[in-house]
Q: What sequence folds into this?
């Protein structure tokens, strides 16, 4: 007979009567030990806020791997016990947030799409991807991000249908009113004709009421975390909203032992 799952593909899974906690502290500690970062000074953010990196063609060549991961290891050192907390809840509702950082890459001027998907308020999927072409406006960048998020939502919806869970008018949140208007308007404007046709399928999903778009203020745009470097306070606010918590091994042990009491 199989017992409760505790490890799966490198993920640590701690189950208790209150909920499920998923993290990778064991793997993180192994990485820190392997690269001699066990006693490094932690930092509050994985990247410097508002940092814009570009190519230094005249600069001295350095090991790019070491350069990029050093700060990440220092951030990891201070957040090693963080993970996703899933409180027990019977309610299920599919929602999503999509965002973009327009022309964030200094060399290619390409934008970064970010998206998160939730079952009710429980984070189950997230993405951060460089867009394949440069967008000429923030509206276009956000529109492409919405399209990518919509594709992920449709895939998740199809998987949940296999379990007898049907969803329509799935809420998707965006902080760009022009991008929302473009998704809801079937008239092809001259300024949007150049946008690749593969992104326009989102209009059909809106028309068929599979998804429903809502405006959200940038402050509460939860996908903001996946588009650019942010400051400590902003990161802490967002990861709390995403359901991340920090539980020490002692706290986890107490939670798991509650079942035996």
A:
């Amino acid at each position: 007979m199989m017992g409760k799952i505790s490890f799966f593909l490198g993920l640590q899974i701690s189950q208790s009567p209150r909920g499920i906690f998923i993290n990778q502290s064991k793997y993180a500690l192994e990485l820190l030990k392997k690269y001699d970062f066990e006693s490094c000074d932690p930092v509050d953010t994985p990247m410097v806020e508002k940092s814009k990196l570009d190519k230094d063609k005249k600069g001295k060549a350095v090991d790019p791997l070491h350069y990029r991961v050093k700060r990440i290891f220092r951030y990891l050192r201070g957040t090693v016990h963080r993970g996703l907390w899933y409180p027990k809840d019977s309610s299920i509702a599919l929602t999503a947030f999509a965002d973009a950082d327009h022309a964030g890459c200094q060399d290619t001027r390409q934008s970064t799409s970010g998206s998160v998907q939730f079952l009710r308020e429980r984070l189950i999927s997230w993405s951060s991807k460089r867009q394949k072409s440069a967008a000429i406006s923030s509206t276009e960048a956000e529109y492409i991000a919405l399209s990518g998020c919509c594709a992920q939502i449709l895939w998740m919806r199809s998987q949940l249908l296999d379990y007898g869970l049907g969803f329509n008018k799935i809420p998707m949140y965006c902080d760009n009113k022009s991008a929302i208007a473009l998704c809801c308007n079937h008239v092809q404007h001259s300024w949007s004709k150049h946008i690749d046709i593969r992104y326009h399928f989102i209009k059909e999903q809106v028309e068929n009421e599979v998804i429903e778009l809502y405006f959200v203020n940038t402050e509460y745009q939860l996908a903001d975390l996946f588009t650019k470097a942010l400051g400590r306070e902003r990161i802490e606010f967002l990861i709390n909203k995403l359901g991340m918590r920090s539980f020490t091994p002692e706290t986890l042990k107490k939670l798991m032992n509650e079942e035996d009491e």
